[in-house]
Amino acid sequence: MIGNTSPFDRIRERQRASDRWSQDRGQNLFEDMDYRTGLTLNDEDILKRLLDQPMDYIDSQEFYNKGAEQAIFDDAPDIERPDVSWYRPLMDDLSAANKNRNTAGSIVLTAAEERVIFLQYNYARHRVAQLQHEIGPSRPDENQVKSLLHWYCRARAFREQIAETNLALVLAMAKRTRMSEVDFADLVSEGNMALLRSVDKFDCGRGFKFSTYACRAILKAFSRQGVKLSKYRQRFPTDFDPALEKSNHLEIVRSVREKELAEEVKDIVGSNAASLSSVEQTVVHHRFGLDREQPQKPLTLEQVGQIIGVTKERVRQIQNKALEKIKSILDERTEGLSLKDDDSAARPANN
């Protein structure tokens, strides 16, 4: 559920101003390195960003104590990762089964546990920043590259763990502050982004619980989303309706054309412009209900054959021959009309 395609991997690391980073800092610094073949494409992308963007972190005096790494990682208790398989942010209401899984899988960290994991997260970012300062404008060696990737991946893992632990907080805040004009999925999305920003900015040394800090940030994000949508509604008061984008012009043109051709065929048959024989006229009139005096329901081949005293197959042959004659006259009239229209359209251009 929370992986490489989640919102937690899409936000970029915040930048801070620093004079020691030049504008061309990230221009192919390691393209000619001998150990470049040992890096994956993902590693190369991460390394480029780390060499181009300074790492921000929340500083702490404990980072500079002797044996800080051992005290922060080895001597600290393990923090259990939560089960986020229940998380379905796009669902308006969770089913009873999902609610039970939520209760069983969610974890509420104590203040001491939060302090441990935030120290670990910020220490990993602190080490990345130290390596960036150590490398400076020069090209990193193999050990520096490995250390950069190692501490960056550890920092990202701690970040994801903190965010996953507090996913239920976003969902609860979204349900509590439902806005009728804001889609629930958009509300949860804004809350997730605010949660990530809170993880990056939270200072555990102040003695507050993370939920206290994050709730305020999430509520502000919800408020901004409501204001943004309100301004959008002022400019676009109606929703997009796909039906309004569909035109029935072609259907109208086709219908008008069919009616015109039907009238033309009736005229051809009525005036016998196709030089139909009396038998052919009888067949056409009865088969298609084109009787000029009393329009009638079209008859079947067998019924017409009984009227003129032939088989239904013979009626089919007479009908096809009559239709070919009618089509020939209709094509001549249509072609003549098209030539006339083209001539009329070209005449003003010649003037």
Description:
- There is one protein chain.
- Helix content is 61%, strand content 0%.
- With 351 residues, it is mainly alpha-helical.
- The longest helix is centred in the C-terminal third of the chain and has 39 residues, at 312-350.
- It is elongated, with a radius of gyration of 39 Å.
- The two termini are 72 Å apart.
Number of helices: 12
Main sheet summary: none
Q: How many strands in all? A: 0
Number of domains: 2
Radius of gyration: 39 Å
Distance between the termini: 72 Å
Properties at a glance:
Four Helix Bundle (Hemerythrin (Met), subunit A); Arc Repressor Mutant, subunit A; 2 domains; 0% strand; 351 residues; elongated
Layout of helices and strands, plus pairs?
Blueprint: H1 41-52, H2 68-74, H3 96-105, H4 111-135, H5 142-165, H6 167-176, H7 184-201, H8 210-235, H9 249-271, H10 278-288, H11 301-308, H12 312-350
Helix pairs in contact: 4-5, 6-7, 6-8, 7-8, 9-12, 10-12, 11-12
Summarize the structure.
With 351 residues, the chain is mostly helical.
